[in-house]
What we know:
- It is built from six helices and five strands.
- It has about 130 residues and is an alpha/beta fold.
- It has a five-stranded mixed sheet with strand order 4-3-2-1-5, sandwiched between helices.
- The radius of gyration is 15 Å and the shape is globular.
- Helix 4 (about 90-100) packs antiparallel against helix 5 (about 105-120) and helix 5 (about 105-120) packs across helix 6 (about 120-130).
Amino acid sequence: MKIRIISSKDEISTLKSADKIVHLAFRPSNKDIMTLISLCPSVKAIHIPSSYKKTLSESIQMFLAMQNVALLEGDVWGHRKDINEYFEIPKDSIDTINELKTNNVSEDDIVSAVTRETKLSPDLVRYIMNS
Length: 131
């Protein structure tokens, strides 16, 4: 599973229509999110830092909900965008999530264990669990 990292408003135009998850490393305006949705109609989730999520308007949050786009809170730790514009969630992390789900471990325990082990955000772990 790959997450496209966008560091500035100028990079929104470089999105590919096939990008499914996008991490915005800047404080997006309503216009930025509308542009993102129009360029990537198949986007399933937008991942943004918690401080930025708190500043999003209710109207854009409702718009995303109507478009079935998940708004995920968190950061992408240890990723160097100058090397690769995509952050890839390690396959072993996804395998761990699936294995714990198969063993009937509670959702909260899975989120806690995987977040501690991988430094993925809790919202992102929940998203992976449910997709």
